[in-house]
Amino acid sequence: MKTESGPIMPEVKMHLALPASPVTATVVETTRCTLGTGRGGAAKSSGVVRHISFDITGTPLAGAFRPGQSFGVIPPGVDAKGSPHKLRLYSLASPTRGEDGRGNVVATTVKRLLDEEWETHKLFTGVCSNYLCDLKPGDTVLLTGPSGKRFVLPKDPGDHDYVFFATGTGIAPFRGMVMDVLESGAASKVVLVMGSAYASDLIYHEQFEGLAAAHKNFTYLPTISRHVGPAADRTLYVQDRLSTHRDLLGPILTSERGLVYVCGIAGMEMGILRGMHASLSPEAFAQYLRADPEFQDPKTWERKLLNRKVNPTRRVFLEVY
Ligand SMILES: Cc1cc2nc3c(=O)[nH]c(=O)nc-3n(C[C@H](O)[C@H](O)[C@H](O)COP(=O)(O)OP(=O)(O)OC[C@H]3O[C@@H](n4cnc5c(N)ncnc54)[C@H](O)[C@@H]3O)c2cc1C
């Protein structure tokens, strides 16, 4: 087994629209995309997540994105110091062909950020996520990008098999990546592990179930950490799938084709790396992580050591925020 092998990555387009010269995009569609919308007796999701698509026809961004890249959104208005709001990044949720098949309509997956004001304890609503979720079709918005070049599929996606781990809006890039791989007709095995607190928080659940039913090389594993009632003993985190589905994931991760992508809540990557350490042989695990001699014990791994003392290989792709 080769030890330093990594995928051949594509050249991607970057920074075609900078913050000083953003493009104007028009909202095409905005829909709630959690499983629980509260309608028709369904359990309500504990958060609001919207799938929002933008028309970028005729701008430098048209046709320029790959799933895994992000675009910047410049919210209108000024911050508490009177300076214009800074841009926020949002992951492309579309496949390379865009939502329309021609790269002219791109979507993202936005979670409304709600918190308490530090001083007053009053409701704090995140600036850009709430701006985006309030938009209606026909509204315009300033976009920049594309941003990011490493967290994308390899140049020839069919050369690899994939294990995608997502939490929350970290699902966005995997919606596009899964569609890209499946639509290419490649025989690649693709496993998507989606973690959420409650089943009602699953994002794009019905779409992934449909894709799994239509493509035998795609497996969708929704993974719920806070079951209530009789199912309370079935609490699972994304990394637990490495043991519950060892027969599925083991052969992918042990083969030279296996790649691991992680996107979502900062910190989730450590649990996944520990889970991989526990479920793979030392030789197979060495394909994904190299730790300095004093950090061989996974209990010593902390986020701040990542890429310093605990080094994922080129077969691991991390995008956490
Ligand atoms: C590469 C990348 C990709 C991303 N992709 C996505 C995506 O696909 N979907 C998505 O939803 N998000 C994504 N994000 C996160 C996104 O960029 C924003 O950070 C997020 O939407 C919150 O922005 P906001 O303007 O709503 O919140 P902000 O207003 O920027 O608030 C941010 C934080 O500051 C705290 N805060 C600030 N001021 C106060 C205050 N006065 N009182 C209390 N708390 C305060 C908030 O609680 C919050 O934690 C991504 C981030 C990165 C880096």
Count helical runs: 7
Give the CATH topology of the largest domain: Rossmann fold
Category by helix and strand content:
alpha/beta
Low-confidence runs of at least 5 consecutive residues: none
Choose one word for the global shape: globular
Bound molecules: flavin-adenine dinucleotide
Structural account:
This protein is α/β, with parallel strands linked by helices. It folds into two domains: 23-147, Translation factors (Elongation Factor Tu (Ef-tu), domain 3, Beta Barrel); 157-320, Nucleotide-binding domain of ferredoxin-NADP reductase (FNR) module (Rossmann fold). The chain has seven helices and 15 strands. It has helices at 127-134, 171-184, 205-214, 241-244, 246-254, 268-279, 282-285, and strands spanning 23-32, 49-55, 70-74, 88-91, 105-111, 114-116, 123-125, 140-147, 161-167, 190-196, 218-224, 258-264, 289-291, 310-312, 316-320. The strands form four sheets. Strands 4-3-8-1-2-5 form a six-stranded antiparallel sheet. A five-stranded parallel sheet has the order 11-10-9-12-15, sandwiched between helices. Strands 6-7 form a two-stranded antiparallel sheet. Strand 9, helix 2 (171-184) and strand 10 form a beta-alpha-beta unit. The two termini are 33 Å apart. 39% of the residues are buried. The model has no long low-confidence stretch (mean pLDDT 94). Flavin-adenine dinucleotide binds next to strand 4, strand 5 and helix 1.
